Amino acid sequence: MSDRRDLVILGGGLVGMTLALAAARRGLSSHVIDKATPAELTAEGTDGRASAISTASWNLFCNIGLAQPLEPLGCPITSIAVTDGMKPGRIDFQPKADEGTLGRMFANRDIRLALFEAARGRPLIALHSGVEPLSRDRGEHAVAVTLDDGRMLEGSLLVGAEGRQSPTRADAGLVSAKWDYSHRAFVTAITHEKPHGGVAWEVFFPAGPLALLPLNDLPDGRHRSAVVWTVDESDANGVAALPDAVFVGEIAARLEGIFGKIELAAPRMGYPLSFHHAGRIVDQRLVLVGDAAHGMHPIAGQGLNLGLRDVGVLVECLSEGLRLGLDPGDAQVLARYERWRSLDSLTVMAATDAIVRLFGVPGKLPSAVRRLGMAAVQRSGWLKTFFMNEARGMSGDLPELLRA
Q: pLDDT at position 171, please?
């Protein structure tokens, strides 16, 4: 007997599992397929990254039932400090008391654990892990995915959520604009002598930014922050080979003592950085979400949040289509999703790319010009409010799931 469902989601990562849960809240059923098992995806050390979850993304998590398990694990971001190499002229983004925080920091592993636990036992979510698709077939009335264990899963809409190297995107012939930044991001965590006060630091250098993102203190009271240090690819192998003590010393030298004495608190992982943006994110009974549709530099911490906005918009388009009697794979439903997401995603990605290039110009004169511009933003109330709303994900036309 065929277990046909509304969605066949290829990719059970952060975006794919969030989509399955959000869809289930609106009565939509799904098959979720991932080559890794939940145990593999949540094992210690598999993904040492942490993510800044914007206000809008946190609203989404709350609206799909993740607030209770996640809230104690998140560290509020109370303000953001942006500076050009620790020189004078920095910008401080700090919302008013009644506006809440600028986001929350979570370990990716904690989010994964909460997602899998929330999906456990839900009849509308069928998780197929440890298997890979052999073929993806999209017909006029249905989609079918044949797995390497011989099973065939059927649905109304195929969702590509496998990440940047999405084979579903490639199989559909959806072309992306893409380039390599020739940068590598080193991700880890540090403990430090002075408290972070909930401040996220973005320190720009010509070779790449250094981000310090607040995490909850350890049980023994030590203060802790996540680190994303971006270096030029030509220096990356040398940085990767540094002993831990020297690696920490290089970070400390760039921070100029703002955190006091620091120590490494997690393994170091390196990731090459690139840009890609699919010109089209829908096709016949197919839609792309998350990094399968767009991958960006982590400089502004918006990559995952962009994918979660995809989820909120897609679920709203699908559920409204169902109310009108439209099939989840109907071309009208998918066209609305593409129109809604295209401008927002392109705007965020273009702005992020521009920041990377602007702060990557070396020399004293470019630095002075940047700091003058930053000082002007610091003095401008409306500009700071605009940038904070963008960081919180609360600007533009928001779907219901992303609202409080």
A: 95
